[in-house]
Specification:
single chain; alpha+beta; three-stranded mixed beta sheet; 3 helices; 21% strand; flat; Phosphoesterase_HXTX; Cyclic_Pdiesterase
């Protein structure tokens, strides 16, 4: 019998570069006219380097992933489609709804 698909949030593990690096990348991208005309560049604040895409996970797995990221000295950030932000959680965890 096949398992039901997980319908939870789609997670990824990423690095957030410093603000000056994000701004430099955004400035460079704006100079790339052919690319900028075809794609919709993200805002500098949203630029990141994806290290691992985890896909959809269950609610319980979200906490385990966040704890694992915190255990290696990172900060866990949850970001929703709207891009709105709100602080919450424990440790350095931030929640973006």
């Amino acid at each position: 019998m096949a398992r039901a698909p997980v319908t939870g949030p789609r997670l990824f593990v990423a690095l957030e570069p410093p603000a000056d690096v994000r701004e430099a990348l955004a400035t460079w991208l704006r100079t790339q006219r052919p690319v900028a005309a075809v794609v919709r560049p993200v805002l500098p604040a949203d630029l990141h380097l994806t290290l691992a895409f985890l896909g959809p996970v269950s609610a319980g797995a979200v906490e385990r992933v966040a704890d694992a990221v915190l255990d290696v000295g990172g900060s866990a950030v949850c970001r929703g489609r709207g891009g709105s932000r709100g602080a919450g959680g424990r440790g350095r965890r931030r929640s973006r709804a």
